[in-house]
Automatic annotation (TrEMBL):
InterPro entries per UniProt: HemC, Porphobilin_deaminase_cofac_BS, Porphobilin_deaminase_N, Porphobilinogen_deaminase_C, Porphobilinogen_deaminase_C_sf
Matches recorded under NCBIfam families: hemC
Coiled-coil parts of chain: none
One record GO biological process: heme biosynthetic process
Domain Porphobilinogen deaminase C-terminal: 220-284
Protein species of origin: Methanohalarchaeum thermophilum
Protein name: Hydroxymethylbilane synthase
GO molecular function ontology, one term from the record: hydroxymethylbilane synthase activity
PANTHER family cross-referenced by the UniProt entry: PORPHOBILINOGEN DEAMINASE
Similarity-based family: Belongs to the HMBS family.
Length: 288
């Protein structure tokens, strides 16, 4: 029986997420899977903010190289970390079911933070959203894995804002002080889903990954990514997006946080990417 090599980052969260993907694959296929870990530039240069690291895909670049060089067969990522402008040799095979798209705050409830409290986050989007809702709060950049960020509470910051999905996957959801309302804190495009990539042209792997592609999540994330791509932006710019499907209809909320422009759009679920692009064009100011 063939064993497929699965590439991922070395962090505890990345390994947890990869095991989730492997469990899905082993349930749906007859193959075995083994994990191969790599350090990405985003992990190596963790003293820098994401914006200071040159180029796209700071958490995916080395895994892409490993795929292209056939050191691994597939790679597992947080969908929000995957650039919209994929390398020509790489394809997306699956988006796993999204259960926790929201951001959360750890350290105190958002509206119970004292005036002038210091909030840690590495995301420009979150920084802008926090300052918009509570101009009295101070925001500072924090990098590092989830555990490192949480360890700064009470020492360097009063609270941190993180993706709920990561907290849930690490099994430390009891640390959550509050889930932030999604309408006020639109998440990063793709947040909450896992993205599995493979080498373009590997049709056997494509069929294998199709078995774990969650149809509703896949359409929703593709709409969000299509919107992001319309802006021509990477994962560090302050754009929030959340799409979901109900009764074969896709609904998307999209926001360019710096521009303070937000739109809501809906349409047929099978036109997901078109709806995402239309939403972005409404913000840009182009004709629909």
């Amino acid at each position: 029986m063939k064993t497929y090599k699965v590439g991922t980052r070395k962090s505890k969260l990345a390994l947890s997420q990869t095991q989730i993907a492997i469990d899905l694959l082993e349930k749906e296929t007859e193959y075995d899977f083994e994990i191969r870990t790599l350090d990405t530039i985003g992990d190596k240069e963790n003293w820098k903010s994401i914006e200071e690291i040159e180029g796209d895909g700071v958490f995916t670049r080395e895994l892409d190289e490993a795929l292209i060089n056939e050191a691994i067969d597939i790679a597992v990522h947080s969908a929000k970390d995957v650039p919209t402008n994929l390398r020509k040799e790489i394809s997306i095979g699956a988006f796993t079911e999204r259960k926790y798209p929201s951001d959360v705050i750890i350290g105190n409830k958002f509206n119970e933070l004292k005036d002038g409290a210091l909030i840690g986050t590495g995301s420009p989007r979150r920084q802008e959203q926090i300052k918009r809702k509570r101009p009295d709060l101070k925001v500072t950049k924090v990098r590092g894995n989830v555990e490192t960020r949480i360890s700064k509470i009470g020492k360097e910051v009063d609270a941190v804002v993180l993706a709920e999905a990561g907290i849930q996957r690490l099994g430390i959801e009891k640390k959550i002080s509050e889930k932030l309302p999604i309408n006020d804190f639109l998440p990063a495009p793709g947040q909450g889903s896992l993205c599995i990539t493979y080498r373009k042209g590997e049709n056997k792997i494509k069929k294998l990954l199709n078995k774990v592609d969650h149809n509703k999540t896949s359409k929703a994330v593709k709409a969000e990514r299509a919107a992001m791509n319309e802006f021509g932006l990477g994962c560090t710019v302050p754009v929030g997006a959340h799409a979901h499907i109900k009764n074969n209809k896709l609904y998307i909320k999209l926001e360019h946080v710096e521009k303070r422009k937000k739109v809501t759009l809906s349409g047929k679920a099978n036109k997901a990417e078109e709806i995402g692009r239309k939403a972005a064009k409404k913000i840009i100011g182009e004709k629909k």
